[in-house]
Structures are given as structure tokens and as C-alpha cells.
Amino acid sequence: MFEISLFGKLLSTFSHSYHLNNTVDRLHWNITTIVLILCVLFIGAEQQFGQPIQCMLPTHLDQNSWTDYGQYYCFTQNTYRLTDNQTLPSASNRAKLHLNVNYYQWVPFFLTIQALCFYIPGWLWMMLQRGCIFDMEAVVREAICLRTMFKFEGRITRLTNLVKYIASGLKMKMKMDRGRTECQMSRSASKFSTLQAKWCKHPLDKKNGISTALYLFSKLLNVINNIIQLYIIGRFIGFNNFPLTLTKMQFTSSYFPLITFCDMERQTLGKVEINTFQCVLMLNFINEKIFFMLWYWICLLFVLSLTDFIITLVQCLRPQCREALIKFYLQFLGLDGVLLLRFINNHAGIKVTRDITVGLWHCFRGFYQVIFYHSFIL
């Protein structure tokens, strides 16, 4: 029961769907990670509790004790493969010809590293965005709660508090930006300290887009991760030439041979007897199919992630796309505010987004009246 509960907690950790993502992000950070973990558990269970290898022993060793020992020995001490019409080579020649097969024990660890590579970009995005002016995850989660509230007074109260929280963060950013602008205007008339000089040189802060930059960075990590994994898996399963892969659907199975051989030294009276076994690695049949499907799945993810990164980059950086989403108080919202409204609209619905937008509009008008008044007095 403890193992089942531990597995449930682990699976829930990787499958927890944060609200600051889209479908392509969830395919990377959640779906692919869960599938890889399930593959790790399946292959690990087959190695520990199943029969990953079956060997044919000589007649004088064909006993239960020797059979079990020989199969365990060959599985842990590696095997070697032979090509067609090839005789049994010596141990030194096997090393020179690269015939040894010793990687199948490491497949669960390899898949675990792959799962972490898919999970880390989303985890980094969630951790880093919490250090910004406001926590977008908490805002979207609260907006989802508003969608299911029907009591008028309670909904208005929570909506007002949520709008105040978002507006306070946006106002703080605008005050910081205004302070930096004044800092730059007076830089020629006075000398600033090193800290003040650095404070005036952050373009992301001026554009009010730190969270947007972090989100784009996580999507870029998805693209890079797919490229690296395609290369590694291609080498692992024998796709030596990627351009030919699209036209030639066959690949060599030398990386996952089903028939292998194993040499076992057995101490006898006065001499060392070497026995050669022929083995069937049924686990390689499973490994071959897993990596074959995984390679094409990551190809699909690469196309989706690259397209999604370009679309998100255009939406965040082109003024026309931002104005198409919301045409007023764009300077007040900034890049992070627009990105937050997209997340709220995707997860909480257009009605909650409209209510929050109206509330922010009132905060925007009041805030800018104060700014314009002080600018006129000065």
C-alpha cells in the first residue's frame, strides 16, 4: 500500500496541470512526462519481476538452478550480438567490433532523464514567475473560482479583491518604470551610483514584460529539448541520417537485437570451463517499439513547439496583436498584464475576463488621473 500511495503522489506531482500554459505546453510538461514515467515503471517491472532474457543452456547445465543462474548472469554481465554468417569471435575481437550489448539495463534511467527534461521547463516557468510582481498562478486559480460562484455579493467581493491585487502589481511596475524614465532623463545632469546605473539598463523591466520573457524562455526550452532528444534517440535506435528517415521508414535493429550470445565462466575441478549460451532478449522487443514511437512523437512535439513558440512570440511582441486582444490601457497592462488576461480567458472563461478587465479599467483611469495631475503640477 505504501508503494501505491508513493506512486500516486509521484504521478500527481508530474500530472498537476498548472494554469499558466496552453495545450502544447501540457503535451510537453504533463502528458509526455507521465507517459515516460509509465514506460519506466513498465520496463523496470519487467526487468525485476518478469523474464527480460531467456537463454538456452547446454544439456549438462539444463537444470533449474543453473538455468536461473545463467540467465541472471547473462543479463547483468552483458551479452554480445552476431551479424549474419558471422562466427563466434573472441572477447578482444568483440570489443573491437563493438558487438557487446550492455545498454538495455540503463533504459529505465535513460527514460527517467527524458521525463525530467520534459518536466523541467514547465517547473522553471512556474517557480520563476512567482518571484515577479504578482503570482499569475494564484490569479488564474482565483479567476477559475469566480467562474463557479453564483452568489452575487460574494462574487463581487472576491472580484474586487482580485482586481485590486492585479492593479496594485501593475501600478507598482508603472511607478518603477516612471522612476527609471526620470533616472534616465537626469543622468546627464548628475552622476549615479553603480546600482542606479544598472537599474536604468533593464529593457525587460521598461517593457513591463519579465513574466512574458520567462514564458517565452520556457517555450524555447521546449524546442531545444526536442532537438536534443531527437538527436540522442536517433543515435540510440540507429537513425543515423535524419533527412533519409522521412523517405525510408526502415532502420537497423542492431541497437536492439533479439538474439544475443553470452559466455559464462564456470569453475570445475582443475580448470575453468567457458560455456556459450544463446539468449533471447524479449525486453529489447519492447524497448525497440517504445523508442520507435517515442521518436515520432517527439518529431510531432518539435513541430508543435516551434509553431507555438513563433505564434506566442508574435502575439507578445507585435503591438497589433496586443491591440487586437485589448485596445485600451495597453501601456498600463504591459506585456505581463496581457499574458495574464490570456491565461484567465483560457482557464476561467470570457465572462470572468470581462469582469476583471472592467475592474482594471476603472483602476487604470483613477491611477492615470493622479499621474497626469502630478505631471501637470511638475
UniProtKB/TrEMBL annotation:
<dbReference type="Pfam" id="PF00876">
    <property type="entry name" value="Innexin"/>
</dbReference>
<keyword id="KW-1003">Cell membrane</keyword>
<dbReference type="GO" id="GO:0005886">
    <property type="term" value="C:plasma membrane"/>
</dbReference>
<keyword id="KW-1133">Transmembrane helix</keyword>
<keyword id="KW-0965">Cell junction</keyword>
<dbReference type="InterPro" id="IPR000990">
    <property type="entry name" value="Innexin"/>
</dbReference>
<comment type="function">
    <text>Structural component of the gap junctions.</text>
</comment>
<feature type="transmembrane region" description="Helical">
    <location>
        <begin position="290"/>
        <end position="314"/>
    </location>
</feature>
<dbReference type="GO" id="GO:0034220">
    <property type="term" value="P:monoatomic ion transmembrane transport"/>
</dbReference>
<keyword id="KW-0812">Transmembrane</keyword>
<keyword id="KW-0472">Membrane</keyword>
<keyword id="KW-0407">Ion channel</keyword>
<dbReference type="GO" id="GO:0005243">
    <property type="term" value="F:gap junction channel activity"/>
</dbReference>
<keyword id="KW-0303">Gap junction</keyword>
<keyword id="KW-0406">Ion transport</keyword>
<keyword id="KW-0813">Transport</keyword>
<feature type="transmembrane region" description="Helical">
    <location>
        <begin position="27"/>
        <end position="45"/>
    </location>
</feature>
<comment type="similarity">
    <text>Belongs to the pannexin family.</text>
</comment>
<dbReference type="GO" id="GO:0005921">
    <property type="term" value="C:gap junction"/>
</dbReference>
<feature type="transmembrane region" description="Helical">
    <location>
        <begin position="103"/>
        <end position="126"/>
    </location>
</feature>
<protein>
    <recommendedName>
        <fullName>Innexin</fullName>
    </recommendedName>
</protein>
